[in-house]
């Protein structure tokens, strides 16, 4: 991984990470605003400014905090939310409602009411009862709701099966099936409380190959043609989801956004020209690829356990509670000792978390300088799905989050206190 050092310390966006660990404590998430904005700039230049009628919606589940949503809003991007909590965060960040898109495979009535009350820009339908449900709520509130259908394009992707979503047997999306999808489309066209805009797909996550996206675009365009033929109805919007891969370790070779978006747009534009079709709005929903590499985690090394001839475990003061991805789907990470960033590797160790699970291993067999208690281990590329999947397992506190910007650093999420961990707990009268 590429990184800068100063006085033997890992530097991040102009900040000394060892000093950050001292000032804000560990475990600590550190996000570089500079690096997030660099990714956004790439999207602006190679997608938003390059093509007409296209949008980027940040998939907020990757990292949803008030400060992050401000960064996204400043870019003029839209926001994808999938729950009342993510929508609430957007409302509290005063994110423009019209730029919010609501996904989710099981939205509750309360969530739909909340979304319609706030006036979100799009609701993406992912279940067979949803059109009727939305229509009923919209009628009561005298609103018309813009909708898309999330389809399962039935493409197989090269990623861990736990994070692939576009295959037929999936809890996500509506199968492209005569008997299932077409009655839904007919209903949507005929229901005055909804404005049927088009289709959405999301084929999977952490993809390095554009094949699945391109196959799915082809399928979506076939549907556009079919809907025109069958219903004389013109699709106005297509959402191609996210899933663009990032670098977690040196083995990952991520591609620029344009590797995905250019051929997708070429396909759309060729289709529109051939079929004499007005170009639908094209939306992409990157999450991971905007924030993953901009974030690192800092942990303090504690117990060191050498099992002769077997393995040396060095334990950190966090683990699966602040980064569950290794335990959840065998995700790989790499890192360095932030306070020995200039020193050569001297031993091979396994960095383990402090939670009571044997899968709580952050990095297996990593080469580091001689590790001592008190060293600061920095894990790279933890910006996506680290903080957002954090838990209180073992009643460990959720770490603080710091945002850096060219040498400045400020706390954007305070460390949870022990009182906050149990603040909602009560002892019932019959136990007193
Ligand atoms: C998770 C998700 C995304 C973002 O995926 P990334 O891999 O983080 O880019 C986009 N759209 C939908 C519907 C999702 O579920």
From TrEMBL:
Q: Which Gene3D superfamilies match?
A: Alanine racemase, Lyase, Ornithine Decarboxylase, Chain A, domain 1
A single GO molecular function term of this UniProt record: pyridoxal phosphate binding
Annotated substrate binding lies at 288, 325, 329, 357, 385
Task: Alphabetically list the UniProt keywords.
Answer: Amino-acid biosynthesis, Decarboxylase, Lyase, Lysine biosynthesis, Pyridoxal phosphate
For the modification N6-(pyridoxal phosphate)lysine, which residues carry it?
61
Question: EC number(s)?
Answer: 4.1.1.20
Q: What superkingdom heads the lineage?
A: Bacteria
Which InterPro entries does the record cross-reference, listed alphabetically?
Ala_racemase/Decarboxylase_C, DAP_deCOOHase_LysA, De-COase2_N, De-COase2_pyr-phos_BS, Orn/DAP/Arg_de-COase, PLP-binding_barrel
Active site positions, chain numbering? 356 (proton donor)
Which EC main class describes this enzyme? lyase
Q: What does this protein do?
A: Specifically catalyzes the decarboxylation of meso-diaminopimelate (meso-DAP) to L-lysine.
Complex and partners: Homodimer.
Supply the name of the protein. Diaminopimelate decarboxylase
